[in-house]
Amino acid sequence: MTEALTFRPVGEAAVLVELGDRIDQALNERVVAIDSALGAAPPEWLKETIPAFASLLVIYDPLLTELHTVEAAVRDAAARAAATERELAEHEIPVCYEGSYAPDIEALGETLSLSPDQIAELHLQGDYRVFMYGFAPGYAYLGGLPDRLKVPRKPAAVRGHAVGSVMIAAGQCIVMPLPMPTGWWIIGRTATRILRPELADPFLFKAGDRVRFRRIGLAEMDGLVGR
Predict the structure, then answer these.
(1) Tens digits of per-residue pLDDT, 54-107?
(2) Segment (H or E) for 116
(3) How many CA atoms lie within 13 A of 190 on its CB side?
(4) Which structural domain, as residue segments, surrounds residue 192?
(5) Distance of alpha carbon 79 from the chain centroid
(6) What is the CA 5 to chain-centroid distance, rounded?
(7) Reduced to 3 states, what is the DSSP secondary structure of residue 125?
(8) What is the DSSP letter of 200?
(9) What is the number of alpha carbons within 13 Å of residue 15 lying toward its C-beta?
């Protein structure tokens, strides 16, 4: 069933296109498809689009168009979305699940009655897809975490986590793009940077991309981070 589109004006130069109110892969795929179709032949008034879990923010130039024209363009993009989906990239992210790189893996194992190796293996089996960016630059929410690893956030955030920390909570996975506090469970770390501000395109992932993780050992990780 195709989701109905709801349009909510955001100020005088944007409209939020809502497709639903839940985190769902099929729904998010529809968001990404509409975004791709709209961007395949962007109108001159289109300034930016920002896909989220179940919505698409469309930012436009109000001096060049009106809201009803934007809505019509989005509906047209939705109608041809399936035929204009972009080819999605797949990224391989090497992760170390050992030692100081995985500060929460033992505690999480006690919570879930799993060994650290079992947590790592389950995490590697996930079918990950980039749902959206949010909260902070480069903060990409990945869906597809195995059900056995779905746990709530910790009661309180903990400071001092490093860039590249691989963390899980609330049925999702994130690779930390900046040093920051978090209440998510840190089960590993990668040397791959998701946020690269020195590049013209600073984000490694795009919404809809696939991600798979590959396990590496302590020695390899130490070499990658220069220890």
Answers:
(1) 999 999 999 999 999 999 999 999 988 764 455 678 999 999 999 999 999 999
(2) helix 116-124
(3) 20
(4) 90-225
(5) 25
(6) 22
(7) coil
(8) S
(9) 23
Instruction: Return the amino acid letter for 44.
Output: E
**pLDDT higher than threshold 90 for residue 2:** no
Pairing of strands 128-133, 180-182: unpaired
Lowest mean pLDDT among 78-92, 119-133, 157-171, 207-221: 78-92
pTM reported for the whole predicted model: 0.81
Mean pLDDT of the chain: 91
Q: Are residues 103 and 29 in the same domain?
A: no
State the average pLDDT over residues 112-137: 93
Torsion angle, alpha carbons of 98, 99, 102, 105, to 10: 80
Residue 158, helix vs strand vs coil: strand
Question: Considering 44, 66, 83, which residue would you say is the last residue of a domain?
Answer: 83
Q: What is the CATH number of the domain that holds 199?
A: 2.40.100.10
How is residue 158 written in tokens?
Answer: 């903990």
Sign of the CA dihedral with 167 first, then 153, 142, and 73 last: negative
Cα–Cα distance between 34 and 39 in angstroms, integer?
A: 9
